[in-house]
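Pasting as-is:
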Amino acid sequence: RPRRARPRDDRDVPSRPDARGRAVDGRGAARFLPKTRRGAATRDATAMATRRDGVARAVARAVRSRAMCGAMTVTRGAGEAGREDARGTTRAFRATARGERDEVELEDARGESATRRPMVPWTRQVVSGVELLRSGKYNKGMSFTRDERDRLNLRGLLPPAVFDQSVQVERVIERLRRVTNDVEKHAWLASLYERNERLFYRVVKDHLEELLPILSAPTVWQVCAEFGLMYRRPRGLYISIKDRGSVYRLLKNWPVRDVKAIVLTDGQRVTGLGDLGVQGMGTAVGKSTLFTALGGLDPADVLPICIDVGTDNQALLEDKFYIGLRQKRTGGEEYDDLLDEVVYGLKRRFGPRVLLCFEEFSNKNAKRLLDRYNSNSVAYCDDLQGIAATTLAAIISALPQMGGSLREQRFLFAGAGETGAHTADLLATYISQQHGISLPEARENIYFIDRKGLVTRDRAQREDDLEIHKLPYAHDMEGAASVRESVELIKPTALIGVRRHRFSFFEGSVLKDEKLFTEDVLRAMAKHSEKPLIMALSRPSALHECTAKEAYEATNGKCIFVGGCKSTPFEYDGREIAPSECSTEYVFPGLGLGLTIAEGTRVRDSLLMEAAEVVANSATPDDIARGAVFPRKRHIPDVSARVAARVAGKAFASGLSALPGKPMDWLRLAKSWMFDPTYRPYTP
């Protein structure tokens, strides 16, 4: 008697072992385990059951292949009732395939309607075909070669033409330049990132100076203001105050384990806009993008996270499109407990050496959190440490033009908040190390003026509310009630505006005027110094203490100007002037890369000073001739590689590195780590 072929679908029916060690399928037919000879009666029973329940078998096969993961019950009884159940289940499967999840109702054998049962979502691994085109990480668009289109099942899914990446870049930038609004340009670039990650970074790399203002300040601030309307797809994690107790479980939802840097924000102080709550996520996403575009970290190595504890912005609470918690901002012990849980969870999930970059926290919280976590984590605050390092780099770069040593210079800070104090502390530490003097001696030539006037020892004795960070700079001297009087009294060689706190602009404040560095102040600076350094670092541009053109005209071209935002180039005395922007983009990307390659364990002032020196020495004679103290922004990736090498070397020498041995060449190692957005060929 000829043997019957084993039904192909028999293996697709779920089975269980019986008492005799056989595999019994869902129909009750026996299948022996592998290497066991099957009897003819069993084969016949299996074939008959297979023919009898064809519909049920098809549904079971669909469940097996994950085409349908919903929990469904298939009735395999004989007779009309069983056939009706099978037909109902088949209709349910077809409806599920069409995506009709909510509207479709099933009818049972008695004609009664039953609500569809919940369905388990699933996805396939990206391999080929349309799913490859939908993957922003692997998609190459029109750059798939003809051979790749054949092997990856893409033929017919793309137009016939094949473009190389350079043509794609030209096409993207040509399309982008037709968009007139910067916010819309940002949205267009965001959609490009979602479609084609490598093409996005190639466009940014090739047109860095043109696109950097769109991806970062000031455009990103406007994007945050409209984030509720512009939100498209999640990029990063959102942790709310209601997630307390389950933060680590939430962090495990992020699919990448080997994260190197994390950008944290709570959206409380978005520059120029104040408290935007969860909409501050735009700044964290922007900073993450720059870690890759400027510092070379792989996009998968950087994770933006927004901590939502509510907002005190009443307009957002009443906005129906606001995407965060609709409650007043939580503070105090409850806020600290959530931050502790977040930091602990991040270190547990991604390792103790993951870089925690705090972004757009309030000045008070930023300083407090930095002090809280700096001793046990790789914590970095760009609004404090980044600005301090960049300001120090500008001073070092301008020093040869100013004349004299760093100890001989006199610095007057207009604005005595946490940002100004942190900058002064780093400057004093650098002076102390360079000249071999004590820290109190290095502070003797650093002065502050706050909203009440010049900070002096007399005020420290009289005022109980004088902040503690101002006390080291309260000198024993007579007071001054304005910036002009302070300049005449101190005769500074460098005037630095760092008004970051809202108190600076209150009525009655000495610093409330938008144009704080008036013509009289600038002329007084030129009178007491041959080459004064004017740094108008307050942001946004509407709060600049003065413009570059105003400074040059008031000082007869004698000054060195550095702005907090980009200055429009202008012509003065027959030469083009293009002052530098004191942007942390020169520092934090290279710092993050250096800590990554060295497996840094802490962020210390010594690392920031190394980064500042590298940035200061990167300016070329042509840059200085144009009135700049930093190189052009298109050179930032090269500067970041050198910063990373110096930072990594310093970390290793200072015992702040977990590497077991010293590499032969830090610069070569840094460049080898940098992300290359060039397409890679795909194998079958």
